[in-house]
Design a protein that fits this description.
Number of strands: 19
CATH superfamily of the domain at 61-245: Nitrogenase molybdenum iron protein domain
Shape: elongated
Radius of gyration: 22 Å
Strand content: 15-25%
Structural class: alpha/beta
Distance between the termini: 33 Å
Strand order of the largest sheet: 8-7-6-9-10
Largest sheet: 5 strands, parallel
Oligomer: single chain
Helix content: 25-40%
């Protein structure tokens, strides 16, 4: 089900900080959910047409379309799905930043493996729905929870950064593998676990080649390359393709999309509020470019930055003096670090006291829900639920629009 309050987190720290600003990977009250009705409908249709309750074909007919519900990808640009009666082709244009496109063939269980030619010759083949999935990024986990597929999770990169109680309980069960606790993929652990598939975090690792050579499919998921917040949220449909839950994913995503768009529309005509984005780190201030994920969120929340017209989709490295000159008078500050008090911020850099937002006590940080191990829900559930992030930002920049807002991710520095 879709929840309106967060309890799922991913990595925080220097890498996560830059990830928020640039769109780079760091791998990180209930609202009514459409999932239950979608699941019931899917279950009802599963037993018809030679398909069992699991979604496997029991009596293959080459003339039958075994995908009556097909995902429509409307916001994401770094994955696509095409349908071919008994199999899907999942294509990732950039498996890693600048990497060559990869396509994966997802064959419905019970169907024969298709003859693959041309661009698909040699493509990895995965039988779906999968029952054992290894995830290299905690940003994947909210999608598995939403699709009621958490039982397929049999391996995670690092257990320490997981925050949702039900996911923590799941990974604590015997047999759930931690395969990159030291920061690199333990290929031997993955091979010993024999998952149906390993989904990456959109980064490369020498261990992946070893895993693939052992016959275990490795699928790229570079959601962090998406600049559109709804594009990142649409990776729900990526996992639906692996788990056979397309109908459930469509209903859930539609709810998030509608919520996000309604929030953006509520401040569309408001005067944009100038924002100080980010904070200095080791002498450098990484400003989100004008075409970045972070700037898109700020703009959709009725805000702007002094760099909004820049065409960069990544980050713009600069220094404190430049930021002070261009954004020193901005009335609001949106940070993405570990600060919870102004004392902490000023202890790191006393010159931050010169910013108008600091003087006014209007500095906010995405650190409301952080675990003792450093997991931050903002980098996990915030990816799957950009409407919750946007709700926080609207309440910060236009408090008159949401005077009683219950914040999911942001807190004001005390």
């Amino acid at each position: 089900m879709i929840t309106s309050r967060s309890t799922r987190r991913a990595v925080i720290g220097a890498t996560a900080l830059i990830a928020l600003l640039t769109g780079c990977s760091s791998a990180q009250s209930a609202s009514p959910s459409p999932s239950a009705s979608a699941s019931a409908s899917a279950s009802a249709s599963a037993s018809a047409g030679g398909v069992d309750a699991k979604g496997c074909i029991t009596d293959f007919d080459p003339s039958t379309d075994y995908f009556p519900v097909k995902s429509q990808i409307t916001h994401a640009t770094n994955f696509a799905i095409s349908y071919h009666d008994s199999y899907q082709v999942l294509t990732v244009p950039q498996p890693t930043q600048g990497g060559a496109p990869e396509s994966y063939v997802l064959v419905k269980c019970g169907a024969p493996t298709p003859e693959l030619t041309g661009d698909l010759a040699g493509a990895q083949v995965i039988t779906t729905p999968v029952s054992s999935l290894y995830s290299a990024s905690t940003t994947h986990l909210p999608f598995l929870v939403e699709l009621d597929q958490l039982d397929t999770l049999t391996g995670v990169g690092t257990k320490g950064f997981i925050s949702e109680k039900q996911v923590q309980d799941r990974v604590a069960e015997p047999g759930v593998v931690e395969f990159s606790a030291a920061g690199t993929v333990d290929a031997e652990a993955v091979i010993a676990g024999q998952p149906d598939v390993l989904v990456t975090a959109g980064t490369d690792d020498p261990g992946y080649a070893v895993v693939k050579a052992a016959g275990i499919p490795v699928l790229a998921n570079a959601d962090w390359l998406e600049d559109d917040p709804l594009g990142r949220a649409e990776y729900l449909k990526y996992f639906a393709a692996l788990t056979g839950t397309e109908q459930q994913a469509a209903a859930a995503f539609d709810t998030v999309e509608r919520s996000y768009q309604e929030l953006a529309a509520s401040v569309q005509d408001a005067n944009p509020v100038a924002v100080v984005p980010g904070q200095p780190f080791q002498g450098t201030w990484y400003i989100p470019g004008g075409k970045s994920y972070t700037t898109r969120l700020i703009q959709d929340a009725g805000g702007t930055t002094a760099w909004a017209d820049d065409a960069t989709s990544g980050s713009i490295p600069t220094d404190l003096e430049t930021v002070l000159a261009k954004a020193g008078t901005a009335p609001a500050w949106l940070a993405s670090t570990t600060w919870t008090t102004t004392v902490q911020a000023l202890a790191e850099e006393p010159r931050l006291a010169e910013f108008a937002a600091m003087k006014a006590g209007n500095v906010w940080n995405a650190a409301k829900d952080v675990t003792a191990d450093g997991g931050n829900n903002f980098y996990e559930l915030g990816v799957a639920r950009p409407d919750l992030v946007l709700g926080d930002l609207v309440a910060i920049l236009h408090p008159d629009q949401a005077p009683n807002h219950d914040f999911s991710f942001y807190l004001r520095l005390s």
